[in-house]
Specification:
By secondary structure, the chain is α/β, with parallel strands linked by helices. The chain is about 45% helix and about 5% strand. Helix 14 packs across helix 16. It binds flavin-adenine dinucleotide. The site of flavin-adenine dinucleotide has 29 residues, from helix 9, helix 11, helix 14 and helix 16. InterPro entries: Crypto/Photolyase_FAD-like_sf, Crypto/Photolyase_N_sf, Cryptochr/Photolyase_FAD-bd, Cryptochrome/DNA_photolyase_1, DNA_photolyase_1_CS_C, DNA_photolyase_N, Rossmann-like_a/b/a_fold.
Length: about 450
């Protein structure tokens, strides 16, 4: 008998319930990945993630080959392709991970119906993409938690499954054709500092993190210049690392750093459980506030380009383009700047992030944007992060700014955060004047929200 393991956001051999489930009763398994045309037409197939994905597929194929198997790659409609492969392999069972976006939920429903028409069963595995399945942590009488703190309490008290070992052998049925695998090197338009993908890279990064930065994480997580976070987010997004295994291993390590780190991983699960219950939150306000967002194309473009005249904002926006990644504290402050200081719709910012972020993810990106914009789950929806205060606290010596804004590289110390105060007022290297007065921005926001 044969089964199909349909890989989606779980591009790994270790701790993969989908692969484990498919291997269970079958003599042979088709490890299948479908380059889904729907992802491209929805605008999600962007260069940075496409390149990272190519690394992930190459590494998955290499891992399967070391075990006697190989990856089967197809392109097109995921339902149609999976049915074809199942038919060619004579498979009676297809295994896939449960996922939370509206798109993924519809895809699973379509797949189940199409396979059933051919007499093939679909097994949907929970707790593959997140550490805990959304349904495992729900409040009484409601379908999801809308506030993080009570969610986290419950999440922490809920048992986690033990990680599964990688399969020792893989046998693929004969005669199943695959398209050639893509190469990350051939993808145009990627960020120059983009990290490499793949399960082996992810596992190395995790081991390095557990043995290195984790202990200092609680003290360093918000410091922009120290860069003291794990940078595991792309691996969690593509599933080259299992969230459950990361939580498990961090808890095994113990200490204040691990505790703070696991709390961040719970945020990831939290946003997934919100989206699972409210898939429309990917584009519609989670809590409608009737914001009359400004159309400010020139200001939004200055924000995207890292030319707002606020060095800490500009440093962050340039880091995004250069690395396809941005520090969490920086994401918070640039999102607040766009949605509250400039009062531009959070969807404008979320779209730009999804164009560049290698970890760009519907659940985390859209719901964090909503959280910052005050349309989401933040219990203090009207808080505004002042970029100068943020800079003083989280880049006290200005090192982060000097790293990413070369025009200001020669300005010493924290003076770099207020270049308009430099003697002579000639801004070095054509660095722009501030595009907005912070007090005016705050005033406008307060008026718009009816806070005065
Ligand atoms: P660490 O600090 O090492 O944290 C470990 C892991 O915890 C992360 O890899 C991530 O999986 C999870 N995590 C940490 N903070 C958050 C958070 N606030 N929400 C959800 N999960 C979190 N994260 C994404 O993975 N994809 C996105 O598209 C994304 N968009 C964001 C947009 C905005 C406006 C904001 C404010 C945050 C966004 N985040 C997103 C969350 C967070 O910024 C990143 O997960 C984090 O910066 C990744 O770096 P790291 O792996 O070094 O994190």
């Amino acid at each position: 008998t044969a089964a199909v393991a349909l890989f989606t956001a779980d591009l790994r051999l270790h701790d993969n319930p989908v692969l484990h489930g498919a291997s269970g009763g079958a003599d042979a398994v088709v490890p299948l990945f479908v380059r889904d045309g729907g992802i491209g037409s929805a605008g999600f197939d962007v260069p940075n993630r496409r390149a990272f994905l190519a690394d992930c597929l190459a590494d998955l194929d290499a891992g399967l080959r070391r075990r006697g198997g190989r990856l089967v790659l197809r392109s097109g409609d995921v339902v149609e392709q999976t049915c074809r492969v199942a038919h060619a392999a004579g498979a009676r069972d297809v295994h896939v991970a449960a996922d939370v976006s509206g798109y993924a939920q519809r895809r699973t429903a379509r797949l189940r119906a199409a396979l059933a028409a051919d007499g093939v069963r679909l097994h949907v595995h929970e707790g593959v993409v997140t550490a805990l399945p959304p349904a495992a942590v729900t409040p009484q009488g409601k379908d999801h938690f809308a506030v993080f703190t009570p969610y986290f309490r419950r999440w922490s008290a809920t048992g986690l499954r033990s990680p599964l070992a990688a399969p020792r052998a893989a046998r693929v049925p004969d005669g199943i054709a695959s398209e050639p695998l893509p190469h990350s090197a051939g993808v145009p338009g990627t960020s120059p500092g983009l990290a490499g993908g793949g399960e082996r890279a992810g596992r190395r990064a995790l081991s390095g993190w557990l043995g290195g930065g984790l202990d200092g994480y609680a003290d360093r997580q918000d410091d922009l210049s120290l860069d003291g976070t794990s940078r595991l987010s792309p691996h969690l997004h593509f599933g080259t690392l299992s969230a459950a295994e990361v939580v498990h291993r961090a808890r095994g390590h113990g200490g204040a750093g691990a505790e703070a780190f696991v709390r961040q991983l719970a945020w990831r699960d939290f946003h997934h459980q919100v989206l699972a219950a409210r898939p429309d939150a990917a584009h519609a306000d989670y809590r409608t506030r009737h914001d009359r967002w400004r159309r400010a194309p020139r200001e939004a473009e200055a924000w995207r380009a890292g030319r707002t005249g606020y060095p800490v904002v500009d440093a962050a926006m340039r880091q995004l383009r250069h690395e396809g990644w941005m520090h969490n504290r920086a994401r918070l402050l640039v999102a607040s700047f766009l949605t509250k200081t400039l009062y531009v719709d959070w969807r404008v910012g979320a779209r730009h992030f999804l164009d560049w972020l290698v970890d760009g993810d519907v659940a985390n990106n859209q719901l964090n944007w909503q959280w910052v914009a005050g349309t989401g789950t933040d219990t203090r929806p009207h808080r505004v992060l002042n970029p100068l205060v943020q800079a003083r606290r989280f880049d006290p010596d200005g090192d982060y700014v000097r790293r990413w804004v070369p025009e200001l590289a020669g300005v010493e110390g924290r003076a770099v955060h207020r270049p308009w105060l430099l003697p002579g007022r000639a801004l070095p290297g054509h660095y722009p004047e501030p595009i907005v007065d912070l007090a005016e921005g705050l005033d406008r926001f307060r008026t718009a929200r009816g806070l005065r």
